[in-house]
User: Fold these one by one.
Assistant:
Number 1:
Amino acid sequence: MNTKFAAVEMRHLRYFVSVAQEGSFRAAADRLHITQPPLTRQVQQLEDILGTELFVRQPRGVALTTAGRMLLEDAQNILSLTEQALDRSRIAGRGELGRIDIGVFGSAGLNFVPRIIQDYRCLYPQVEVVLHNLDRGSQIKALHERRLTLAFNRYFEDEIGLEWEVLLTERMHVAVPISHPLAKHRELALADLTEQPLILYPRKPRPGFIDHVMRLFHAQNLQLHLEQEVDDVVTAVALVAAGVGLSLVVDSSCNLKLPGVVYVPLHRLDKAIVNLCMIHRKDDNSPLLQNFVRVARKQKNRKTAVKPQRQGHSENPPPGMAGHTIS
């Protein structure tokens, strides 16, 4: 780069463009809210740096030379790009531009998290939201490696460098084939399931939801009949639809509408609840993250009701399928 051209400043280009557009130093000075002498000096300085005249002085105003016409288009582009860059930087500094990477797993992506993302995208449409389906261990690893901004999962424990909070406490339900006698109940107790073949998930990571269910049975000295372990809730509910057995799901999973499957809530005395947590790095003070956390907490405070419905029946939900409010 010619070191002589390094002396060109943004104001040189801005003043030059103003004179070119107005066709007059006086009109350009008025537009820039400065006096004419400093404007004239800046344009002359630019001409000295370039070693060529940019304007032909006329009795009434000025006209561009060939060199001036060549410079005008590029100068306008430079000023426009500079303004765009500064504006994008300002917007990014407020967390309104950029990319946020979110880890999800299992039923976390079926209801509550999509509502958070929907609200967030309405407020920050220029931020790209990217979801990654990762189990808990992979989420923690990706957070430490800064490949994720934050994550949602069920069973977090204290982790160095990370912090988490409970956003939602969900009630558990029994996924039952519609022809099964238990499908007619308004509520079920864990004791009602001791003789029933259960399909539980996920096989890994452990400990996880399957271990939580086992602890609930163990706490009441109940026998659990484990028919099959599967990878995820979708597979479990599909097997329920096929008549293989029953399964346990949380509020969010009741959005899985498979033909022939109904969801009956467990009795509150069983204390069959599961937390949904949000986790992120402690040292991440970025506006992107702070804005998302703010939206997530606002959604948390809404305490939205989930209303599961039976498939293949009338619009009025029968006993056992009445909606309830998430605690």
Number 2:
Amino acid sequence: MNCTTVTVVIAMLVMVMFVHSIENEDPCFENPCNNGGTCTVIESGFSCMCSSGFTGTLCDVEQCPKPRTMKCDDGVLTTGDNLSCMEGYTRIVYATSMCLNQPIEDTMCIPGDINVATLRFYGSSKYLFVRTFTNVHDAKNSCSRVCGSLVEINNEEENTFLATTAEELQISSLTIGLEHNGEEFVWSSGNTTDAYSNWDSAENFESTCVYLVSGNTKWNTLDCIGLSQSVCEISSNGFNMMRRSPRIIKLSRKARESQNDKEKPKRLQNGTEENSKPLQNDKENPKRLQNDKES
């Protein structure tokens, strides 16, 4: 055995002894913490910081999450563990999970005068389908009390989601947040229907409020004091009052101007178009209602 070989053997022995020493002195060397837990050396040995959903000395015991409650308080939407509902509110279950063979129910506080409601999620918003029949004024009030507003529909996908869900819940029609302001139909946020609309081809625009028919996904007008079921949209930040940017609105108008006359929104004045030709209601995007019929 030459000197080089002896040197190599000695170095290997030293390394083995060093590793063995570390294993004996560092209780976290092989991380005794389970399920992604982090080991920390302490004076008495080690401590495990467990990842979410686990507990125990070695993070080997499954920990069930606490039930979550969503509530609207002074216009602020809050979600926390076991929050209490304010007086006059009741709870609905919007999500259920199982943990250790036990159901974990997440709930939402809703006004007590809403007898039946279902919360669904789509995109970045939450939608509360209210199956209590109310007029439009009361529907708006109910939505504001859950930090929302009557839904604003911005595209075909959202419209289809609402219609499909309503049909699943056996709701024939839903009041939405579109209303005629004397000049044109606008959403609660102030947005127009330039970007998207889905009017029924047979609609005559004799009323000022609007509902969505679940069966055919089309929009029709209704008397604002009539009773209907409704859907509230609750954005991630509470009240759903976000406006589209002016640039987006401008582009949508420019796109419409490139379409043929039948697809352009028409202004309705005294039963005739602005060019004095006989009235032809625009079924895609009406901008004005007819004036009250002359007595």
